[in-house]
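okkk here we go again. third time trying to get the flavin-adenine dinucleotide bound version out, last two times i messed up the smiles copy paste (missing a bracket lol). double checked this time i swear
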Amino acid sequence: MGKHAIVVGLGFAGTVLARLLADSGFTVTAFDRRPNVAGNMFEYERSNGVRVHMYGPHIFHTDRKYVYEYLSRFSAFYPYSHRVLGQIDGKLVPIPFNFTSIEKLFPQNQAEKLKSELLEHFDPDSRVFVSDLLRHPVAEISALGQYIFEKVFRNYSAKQWGVPADSLDASVLRRVPVIIGKDDRYFPDSIQMMPIFGYTELFENMLRHPSISVHLNSDALKRVRPHAPSGKFLLDGVPFDGPVCFTGSIDELFDYALGALPYRSLELCLEDYPVDYYQNATVVNYPNEENFTRITEFKHMTLQDIPNATTIMKEYPIAFHPGGRMVPFYPIQTDENRSLYSDYLSLCGKYDRLYLCGRLAEYRYLNMDAVVDSALQVFEKIIRDRDYE
Ligand SMILES: Cc1cc2nc3c(=O)[nH]c(=O)nc-3n(C[C@H](O)[C@H](O)[C@H](O)COP(=O)(O)OP(=O)(O)OC[C@H]3O[C@@H](n4cnc5c(N)ncnc54)[C@H](O)[C@@H]3O)c2cc1C
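finally!!
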């Protein structure tokens, strides 16, 4: 019968694994419960012609050249540097906070003083963290850190996570960058590209292989079940001897036996307008006013030339409840939740042909490049582990 593998989920984790396994001689049966491939990278065209990302804006950025080279086998890419503005005190300023933001928000004399203080203590064009400013001995610098924390971070994070900002893990603070110069790119990575015809086509190209059979609208857990007594998985009730690559939620795999892993979700609302452009940047953040956190205008990202039509997306953070219609987007990283996750990992340890990969199975926020990298590594492990027949 030859080598046979199962892949659950067709986001980047499952799709890269399916392709690598098929290229190395496996027959792959792949499932996704959604009606489409591409997971949270799913992109489609609206009736006005604008391509949108159904699960929030996704920008490919990486320093891992080998990841980009691997994906380039399946699509051409175009350069795209992501830029974000934030509405602070009624003005639109670059985010991450940079020298232009300082010039727009402070009187000229004060702005000049702040910039020269920053240049005296930090490297030009470097990215530092707001926590570096907050604990700085120079009073003007720590006051600037406090200003950025209050105006850019505090309310945004409270909205995002649904908890008071003071109760957020201090490590989150470290991740708020401030740029010592005028670079206004959101990401510092050396590679910032987008697939030329969108993510969905990239995924379809990866899955176009005679040894991959794709089953959509298909909840894998109705057909693929862990069987504790044998330490094997059953496919349609029959013991399965090949690798099972699981990229869904690990708590769901075990019927929430130890409880549900908490996530934060988003309500994503699309609006069409009969105008050329709605705003001056791909993303505008609203840290303080409004119930939503940000607005994305996709045409700035797809670079489509469509007159008198545009589409925007507003993001409203909300709670996630398993079994409901919401998507589990962001794992809520607390010690308690990490400990619950490692209890689930212990359950997985009984199944030596089970391979976990991706943001849900690993219960971590992972960028796309990290997920592709993880899939490349999981594939190596599958090949190393044993001679699957
Ligand atoms: C709002 C938002 C914006 C983001 N923006 C960026 C960005 O700009 N750049 C970036 O690099 N990263 C970004 N990310 C991260 C990116 O979304 C993840 O890296 C990516 O989704 C991970 O892919 P994955 O395959 O692990 O998961 P997913 O894409 O979620 O794929 C998992 C798939 O498994 C399927 N599945 C689960 N369980 C089952 C089952 N039992 N049976 C069948 N199918 C199942 C699901 O339907 C889903 O299609 C963003 C994340 C969010 C939340």
